[in-house]
Amino acid sequence: MNAKKTPIITLAVVLLCITLTLSFTEALTEGTSPEEKHPLTVAESSDYTATSRYADVLSFIRELQSMSAYIKVETMGTSPEGRDIPLLIIGDPLPSSPQDLHYDRRTVVYIQANIHAGEVEGKEASLMLARDILLAEKMPYLDDLVILISPIFNADGNEPISPENRRNQVGPEQGVGVRYNGQNLDLNRDGMKMESPEVQGLVEKVLNRWDPSLLVDCHTTNGSYHQQPVTYAWILNPNGDNSLIDYMRDKMMPEIDATLEQKYGYLSIPYGNFRNFKDPDAWMPSGPEPRYITNYIGLRNRLAILIENYAYADYKTRVEGNYYFLHSILEYCSANQDKINTLIAEADRKTILRGLDPAPSDTFIIEYDVRALDEPISILGWEMEVMESDRGYPRMRKTDIEKTYVLPYISDFFAKRSIPFPYGYFLTVPDKNIINTLLQHGIVVEKLLEPITLEVESFHPTEITPSDRLYQGHHMNSIKGEYKTGEKEFPSGTYFIGTAQRLANVAAYLLEPESGDGLVVWNFFDRYLVPQWSRELPPYPVYRLLKPTPLVKEIIN
Ligand SMILES: [Zn+2]
To answer: How many Å lie between the centroid of ligand 1 and the Cα of residue 504?
Structure first.
């Protein structure tokens, strides 16, 4: 520092202190009610014209910590730009670590916000929720739940706040952050390839460490016009345990939806967009791929809710809708805690039993189809009209005439083509990137201690086509080929991934060559799928062992 500047800085600091003291004294002498002493989020203190910056979030959390003994903060990772990502742990008693919960009946619920940092309501709402639970006369939910909150998951994306971002969204007028993280990655496409420190932190420090029964991921919509301020989706991938999907679709989400309306006066509908904007004939959610975090959680045998607040509702309504939806979720989890615990324990048990001795009826789906649910849904929308556009295609705009669309909800994904679910996989290339990714997910990987010759199924690619366009930094592969059965010798040191483990669905999804979101798609195997000295493509270096077989092996970590 330049020594000549010191007096100026000292003066500035003194002036700042005087100003702060004056305003603090003012606040005290004004006789604030107990409620007004609570820390306010930036959304609240700005009268819903602004959203919190990273520093605002940290100081809000510190203030809560100074006021309550029932919150602690862990770091779930460091963003590419070097920001520690805070994870709030709220409980009564406050667990010092997940080990404290081993014989505890409480259910862990994890709320994640700001994964797309232009979609900011969850950040404000989750902080308000933490405050209002901790500072309540009688803290709600905590007899049954331990609540984890990541209010600013995409901390890097949050900081370049500008009114130029997400201009279609109605407020906050002072602007919001950007979608991507400091690596230019969309974190809600990183569920399988796990290339960001944020998602690596989520899996390692939250999912594998605290094992939440439910993940809630807060977003804002981009699409269709409707009046309901809150929309939601559940886990959708049919390669997960279908009892969890059925439970969320048929019981949990309808009850949470009803609570939001009846108790808090906000409307919600299942998330989607009109299949055909010009002539709405159906309502459809996003795809079932586990690159989306909520679908990924389903593959892990846990529950997940995607919240999508309606982008054209005003900012205050969006924050409040999100806030009360979180309350509705926590109320449901408190009241149905035993059921949730039993359901996911049973899903784990079934997964492990299947892997010990897969039956012919046990399959892995490599191609889906989708159909409508039994019940149509009502979207409170508006009549739409075609707008002239200079983009070469017509755009739609809403009129002022309200209209209810009763449409089929096409969100039941089911098997179109399946293959037998194997006992395990042999990985014959010692690739650190592949093995580390499996381990980072929490998958158990073993190594043969003795060579063995076995009948296995191999996959022989006939065609590999990388996508023309880059997507998340990848030319994603699509692959065609055929399966062959034959004997093969596996030397000592060959990696083995058995399916008698809790994360078997994730392991299969990553390793099956034809899975639509596995490691082949995301280029992890590219170098092993190049022809050498011939035109023929080499076999895929992962072999499927179908029958239970004793193997001499040890776990690696
Ligand atoms: Zn989003």
So the answer is: 28
Classify 469 as helix, strand or coil.
coil
Instruction: Provide the pairing of β-strand 230-233 with 268-270.
Output: parallel
Provide the token pair at 214.
Answer: 């439910």
170 phi/psi in degrees, rounded to 5: -85, 95
Instruction: Answer whether 0.90 is exceeded by the pTM.
Output: yes
pLDDT band at 391 (very low <50, low <70, confident <90, very high): low
Task: List pLDDT tens digits, range 33-42.
Answer: 545 558 999 9
Least confident piece of the model among 50-64, 318-332, 387-401: 387-401
Alpha carbons 525 and 476: distance in angstroms, whole number: 11
**Cα-to-centroid distance, 117 and ligand 1 (Å):** 8
Residue 33 burial class via C-beta count within 10 angstroms: exposed 0-12, middle 13-18, buried 19 and up: exposed
| Strand partners for 112 | 150, 217
Rg (CA), the chain: 26
**Can you tell me the distance from the alpha carbon of 442 to that of 448, in angstroms, rounded to the nearest whole number?**
19
Q: Where are the beta strands (DSSP E) in 185-285?
A: 214-220, 230-233, 268-270, 273-274, 283-284
Q: Taking residues 7-34, what's their average pLDDT? A: 42
Average pLDDT estimate for 433-457: 98
State pLDDT tens for residues 311-369: 989 999 999 999 999 999 999 999 999 999 999 999 999 999 999 999 999 999 999 99
Q: Residue 123 Cα, ligand 1 centroid: separation in angstroms? A: 13
- Can you say whether residue 404 is alpha, beta or left, with left for phi > 0 and alpha for psi between -120 and 50 degrees? beta
Return all residues near 50 (Cβ < 8 A) that are at least 6 apart.
42, 43, 172, 173, 174, 175
Spacing, Cα 231 to ligand 1 middle (Å):
12
